[in-house]
Amino acid sequence: MLIFDSSVTIINRSKNGRSTKTFISEGIWKSIIDEASENDYIFIQFGHNDESKEKKERYASQDTFRMNLKRFINEAKDKKAIPVLLTSVSRRRFDSSGIALETHREYAAYTREVALAEKVILTDLDTKSRKLYQQFGKENSKLLFLQLQPGEHPNYPDGKEDNTHFNELGARLIAQIVLAALKEQDIELSKRIIIPVKK
Fold it and tell me: What letter would DSSP give residue 144?
């Protein structure tokens, strides 16, 4: 499904399990910035893996996380590209009364702080994704994630209960949230969206 018109080329360099730290150490960020051109948009979203203290190879302390985000922003600006920060999407977690809980409180806050300090575009997906889960409710929000019964999918013969990774429906709804945010912020890229966006 086309989202943008033919003037937009999307290059996706994201990799699962990476943090700002490993994105740098593995050379992924360098590959992006080396190819960046004036007026390119670079969408930057981290936090899920940066906060994993039990995995030392990818854990980034709050100071390191902030420093890495600022590096990404400054190097993008040096290429006259346009950095866009996004907070992490929330994991699916509800309290006993059915309220969707924050799952990235600290690292979402660090991302907001950096966006404000560096004066860059921010989409707060942490807040917006929790609002989406709340609209669906505790049980129905499972429909957005990789929640599979044994035998339901050949890749997961024993089933799967994943409250972090989206299925196609969840991914599409999160994409709609991002597109709506681009429209709300009225940035130039939003003029090139060719699918209807709910506000």
Answer: G
Q: What is d(CA 91, CA 105) in angstroms, rounded to the nearest whole number?
A: 11
Confidence (pTM):
0.90
The per-residue pLDDT of the chain, averaged, comes to 93
CA distance 108 to 50: 11
Strand ranges (E), 59-155: 82-86, 121-123, 145-148
Amino acid symbol at 175: A
What domains can be seen in the chain, in order of their start residue?
Answer: 20-192 (3.40.50.1110)
Please state whether beta strands 82-86 and 160-166 pair in parallel, antiparallel, or not at all (unpaired): unpaired
In which band, very low, low, confident or very high, does the pLDDT at 51 lie, cut at 50, 70 and 90? very high
pLDDT at position 71 over 70? yes
Longest dimension (CA), the chain: 51
Residue 22 half-sphere exposure toward CB, CA atoms < 13 A: 19
| Token pair for 40 | 């390119």
Q: At what angle do helices 62-78 and 105-118 cross, to 10 degrees?
A: 40
Q: At what angle do helices 125-136 and 168-185 cross, to 10 degrees?
A: 130
pLDDT for position 153:
85
